[in-house]
Amino acid sequence: MVMRYGRYRRRRKKYKEAVLSLLFVSLAVLLVAAAYNLMNRPEAEYVFYSMAGVPETSEEETARPPEDSPESFAYEYDGGYIHDGEAGGVRITGYDGSKSIVRIPGEISGLPVVSVGDFAFREETSLTIVIIPDGVTSIGDAAFAGCAMLAEVIIPDSVTSIGNNAFNGCTSLKSVVIPDSVTSIGDRAFYDCRSLESVILPQNIKIIEKETFRGCRALPGIVIPDGVTGIGDAAFYDCRSLKSIALPDGLAVISYETFMGCSSLTDVTLPGSVTVIGSSAFSDCVSLKEIEIPEGVKNIRWRAFFNCSALTSASLPEGLLAIGGGINGGAFQRCSLLSVLNIPDSVTSIGDHAFNSCALLPDGTVRKILDINPSAWSNH
User: Fold this and answer.
1) Which of 29, 61, 243, 326 shows a CA-CA span of 20 to 30 A to 200?
2) What angle do CA 76, 150, 234 make, to 5 degrees?
3) CATH architecture assigned to 220-380
4) pTM listed for this prediction
5) Helix (H, G, I), strand (E, B) or coil at 361
6) Order of strands across the sheet with 253-254?
7) 55: helix, coil or strand?
8) How far apart are the C-alpha atoms of 54 and 48, rounded to whole Å?
C-alpha cells in the first residue's frame, strides 16, 4: 500500500506539472497571436475611446461644434443684401433652442445668414459660447444683451458693424477679439461686461462711442488704435482695473467722464493733438500721481481731475486759457496731495473751487490763483 500510494503521489505531481506546462504554453501562444493581429490590423480600424466611452474628437472638432438646426432660430428675409449677384439673405431674429454652445448656421432655406438682428438673443441666459458664421456682416442692437452666462463669442472677419448695447450686461464675457473688418461699434456695446479682461479693437475704427466699455471692471488695459479720432462720453467710466492708457495722436477731445472712476489708473499719455480735457474726464482717478497736459490744450473743464487724491504734480502748458470753468468748477478740487503746479501766464480764467482743498500748493501758486479768481482756492 505504501509503495502504491507513493507512486500515486509521484504520478499526480507529474500530472500537475504537465497541466501547468500546457496552460503556460497555451497562454503564450494566445498572447503572441493577439500581438500579431494587433500589429497587422489595418490603421483605419483603430478607434480610440475617451474615459467616458465616447470616441474622441480632434481639437478643431471640439472647438467648432456642428451648426445648430435652422429650426432652432427665428429669422426673416433681408432683401437689402446682395450675395453672388443675387438679392436676399437671412436675418436671425430669435433663438428657440436651449443649448449652452450655439453655432449659428451659415445658411437657412438656401439663403446665406447675413445678420444677427436686434434683440435676437437678448437675455438668453443659457448661452455660454456663440459662434457667428462667416458671411454675417452686422450684429444688431442689443443682439446679445443680458446674456449673463455668455463667456465667449467668436466674431468672423465679415462683420462690419456692432450695434448699440450689442453685448450690454454680458457679465461673464472674459475676452473678445473684434476683427479689423469692423468699422463701427455702437453706444454701450460692452457696457457692464464686468468680467471682461481682454479686448482687441479693430484697426479701422475711428470712434469709440459713449459708454462703450463703461463698467468693465476687470479690464486691466486696452490698446487704442492709431486711427481713433474721437472717444465718447464715459467710454471707460468705472473701468476700475485699468492701469494705463496711451491715447493716439489725432484725438482732439477727452470727453465728459471718459475715465471717471478708473481707480487703478496710474499712467496716462495724452497726445499733442488734444485741445480740450472734458468735464470729469479723470474724476475719481485716485491712483493717478502725475499728469502732463500737452501744449495744444486750451481748456481744462470743470471737475476734470476732481478727487484725484494721489495727484502730486500737474504740468500745465503755455497757451492754456481756462481751468475749470462752468457751473460746477472744481477742476482740481480735493487733490489733497497736489504740491507741484504751474499756472502759465496764458491762463485768463479759473473756475470756482478749481483748487479747493489743495492745501499743499505753495504760496506763490496760491497768490496767482487768487489774483485770477479768489473763489478758486480754499482749504475748506
Assistant:
1) 61
2) 95
3) Alpha-Beta Horseshoe (3.80)
4) 0.80
5) coil
6) 207-208, 230-231, 253-254, 276-277, 299-301, 322-325, 349-350
7) strand
8) 9
